[in-house]
Amino acid sequence: MADQLIPRREMQFQLYEVLNTQALCEKARFEEHNVETFNAVIDMAEKMAEELFLPHNAIADKNEPTFDGTKVSMIDDVKKAFDTYRESGFIAGHFDYEDGGMQLPVTIMNACAGYFLAANPSSTAYPFLTAAAANVIKHCASDEIKNAFLSKMLSGDFTGTMALTEPHAGSSLADIRTNAKPQADGSYRIKGSKIYISGGEHELSDNIVHLVLAKIPGGPAGVKGISLFAVPKYRLDDNGEPKERNDVTLAGLIHKMGYRGTTSTALTFGENDDCHGYLIGEPHQGLRYMFLMMNEARIGVGYGAAMIGYRGYRYSLEYAKDRTQGRAAPNLAPEDDPTPIINHGDVRRMLLAQKAYCEGGMSLCLYGSTLIDELETEEDSDKRTEISQLLDLLTPVFKAWPSEFGPKANDLAIQILGGAGYTREYPVEQCWRDNRLNPIHEGTNGIQALDLLGRKLWQHQGKGLDVLLRRVTSDIHNAKTPRCQTLAKKLSGYLDTLGGLIEQAGVDLKSDKQSVLLTNASCFLNVFSSCVVSWIWLRQANVAELALQATPGEMDADFYQGKLAAAEYFINWELPLVTRDIEILKSQEPSCDNVKPQYF
Amino acid sequence: MADQLIPRREMQFQLYEVLNTQALCEKARFEEHNVETFNAVIDMAEKMAEELFLPHNAIADKNEPTFDGTKVSMIDDVKKAFDTYRESGFIAGHFDYEDGGMQLPVTIMNACAGYFLAANPSSTAYPFLTAAAANVIKHCASDEIKNAFLSKMLSGDFTGTMALTEPHAGSSLADIRTNAKPQADGSYRIKGSKIYISGGEHELSDNIVHLVLAKIPGGPAGVKGISLFAVPKYRLDDNGEPKERNDVTLAGLIHKMGYRGTTSTALTFGENDDCHGYLIGEPHQGLRYMFLMMNEARIGVGYGAAMIGYRGYRYSLEYAKDRTQGRAAPNLAPEDDPTPIINHGDVRRMLLAQKAYCEGGMSLCLYGSTLIDELETEEDSDKRTEISQLLDLLTPVFKAWPSEFGPKANDLAIQILGGAGYTREYPVEQCWRDNRLNPIHEGTNGIQALDLLGRKLWQHQGKGLDVLLRRVTSDIHNAKTPRCQTLAKKLSGYLDTLGGLIEQAGVDLKSDKQSVLLTNASCFLNVFSSCVVSWIWLRQANVAELALQATPGEMDADFYQGKLAAAEYFINWELPLVTRDIEILKSQEPSCDNVKPQYF
């Protein structure tokens, strides 16, 4: 089936009609690329995703990895897919030529990632985590560590993990207990337990490099005393080859509801006091190093949620066109033929909502990816500062909004399939289970709300907000047709209200209203992110209207009409839901703040 | 753990403080009962649910029934639980003494059902379906059929199913193809395929009586030509014992995402042209007979959704009190102790929302159950008519609202547990998977919306709505304290708006606006059911305020404060969400109606 994941027409629209990704080729870093090379890489990703990742997505779900006490086993298809991926050079796709990379923009890497994430998020996790860990090593580690690990990670001979969470502490990294004792040779001995470590054990690669947060005894309390270590599964011999088993053991596999193909592990470091770790960068800077990568990681989570949503959307769309049931007016007689269910209004509602959620989330996260590329390549330092401020501000939205609405899309896909959607004979239920992880990991959406309202808004003296508002206002002015102007006007009204809420929040955070405000932080995230996504949809609508004026062919015209329909749906159906949140925030509604534990 | 399912304090509140269930004992039908006998039955249900149903809920999920081509196997615990249930006489609980029943009110049977549904919805399905099928036979079948099947079903020696859906037709019963050819002996030969038949095959009982919708050749087209048949798995010998295998075969088990302990089957009737079926009642009246039971069945689905939601709510509540993570103001220093997560405002929000959803859904469906009891026992025929009209009108709400919000509650329970909630080591993810069935079966929620807006509102010349509004208005007047009056006033405002929407809908349904109105029917269902559930919460708040004035003990006072908090949460946080729906309906927003299939 052509276009069974993300239609190329859609990807082309986002990259070249909305985001102007081709402009990146004018930057020195990307000067050897052009639209043709971009598309060739996406072609390769699409083909690999469809041929090697998609076919075993459900098989891996049904046959999750097992641990016999010594070794983790999984179906062979995962290794086959992983090997082809790494041999194609994708892990290093974004890295410098001098690292053996392809020096591709993050935006193009994420365009590719979309196909893998829609096809098989579980198998995709192994190389993606490796690239993320390699990125930390590249930017923060000493040459010695880089020499030991980087090129082998970029080739996929070694894989990587991020080992942050501990059983007792969860999201509260201040409370981690894993410790790292300095040794005479400059290395450290690591001791502690980590949990929910994705890709923490498997036989896909020759070695696994865990990036472990731990505390060096005597350091500051809380987050200020966290350091970052590279802890390999196998220590390297003098030739840099993995040899002796390091004292990192798999305490057990965790059995998840979804994402079952990815091993989720409980790891024990230093059970025999012989776990060698190597400090990355300076002591006590571990969290800062991790957070250098956090914007990108959080965009990745949101984007993945949109892509899993997209898979379900496309499947339910095909189903709705194909499946006949009931009658559509005016042919309502028993002897009339049953009609494809897409002709039932409520089914179209569920399809249009999915389109609005998934293409909205996709466009949002590709926008975020472009900001990362611009940040990396912009030569004007003032502009770079602006981009950085905007990126920081929007990161909670990139993470939280699609990870809330991607699963909602999957829920609607199940509903369209009805009883069939509830069975494991169809793929939509797995999409829904897989996607449920995304509101949880990389900072729960509750934490994102606090991060936005309590911190990000006010960072850099609130300049990120100024940048955002300038950009939104510019697109509001770019709405030239009556349809787009109607949308722009609605968004304007909500933006004015949002401005008032932010002003009020600035005052309340310093008063005794702080508690109720932060308790209701999710309402603020709703208002803020719905405005942002409405803007993302207005941008798409503006492009579509302009394209329609140029009298495109029939298929393109339908495509652009679909964009307008989804934009109108979003701004007329989804944005007004935040009226509730606005009222909650304005009235400082105290129900959740006041309710006492004993009342439950 | 005491009260691990539904706290008895909560059940007592609903039954005896809100619904005045004890008043039913004044009716002749229930005159042998009193609060003590009611509570004794609930005690028994609670104990049985906790001891025999709850322990194997996760085990049955992990070890779903299998079919070896001849026989369906499942874990032994299911039969043990089923046998104890049937031996306790619960299947016949609501039936007449003369049928061997306990002649208990539906309200009390549903109070009991709550414990089973929260503990283990899958194993509960077998006896519940049997009682429902027996109910149809009792009310619609000839004495011959009753004599053959009824008492054996009520004892659980035989079980029952409802075989409506066919693979090609889904919800469109007009299009079923299963046919029934009359035979000289008065029986019929059934031929056709059914799908998603719960409990369609197993070894729990000596026989399975399928209630099958089929068409007698030569009958009217569409739904008017549907008849109902009793089709046993084994035909009975002259002594009424199951003997020869009837020609009903299991084409296969369906593998569901949740509810895995209940066999879901594809059944073939008459593969060898020898499937004997027995007409229930008159020919071509099959759908009417099924719909006689539909109000009760749909309340059952909604109630089950609320109860599965409740299980997750209680679990996440205990978790939130127990699990420490992060700090709460003013003790924010690293050296301060971590705090139970219930002290984080956003966690309390997620708990309060769950409480509002689940206790709202529970109260709503127990209210519906009381209507059924009143309908059965009211002697004044005018009053009986009113009750019947109200019951018809509210049935789509009883079914759809809790089946939308129960899963939402389960989603929040997962979020509170975070990473742990996403694993199969904790029960909340199973609750979420199990509950996802409820918006689909017994008429999808999209169908409920159409049923309400297109049919139920206008039935009986709209008198159901009059009855509802009188009752709501009465409770609005009963709001005597400032807190309740504030809630009542808000609800009043929405009711006025709802009245306007209904007036408009009456006009639009007869105009060219019909299509856009029905496409947006889900918005109407949202407005209508949110008003109804707000009323249900106002009723609870009124009771709580009155009780608080009587200065109850500390634990009771906390309980009533919790009721007020949840009522305020619901009316301040959930009801205003329908502002969006009101706008959609008022403006006849055309996005979903206008979007063309080729735009997707």
From TrEMBL, chains A, B:
Protein name, entry field: Acyl-CoA dehydrogenase
Organism of this sequence: Alteromonas profundi
The entry's keywords: FAD, Flavoprotein, Oxidoreductase
Domain of life: Bacteria
Sequence similarity: Belongs to the acyl-CoA dehydrogenase family.
Cofactor(s) listed in the protein's UniProt record: FAD
GO molecular function, a single term: oxidoreductase activity, acting on the CH-CH group of donors
Domain Acetyl-CoA dehydrogenase-like C-terminal: 471-591
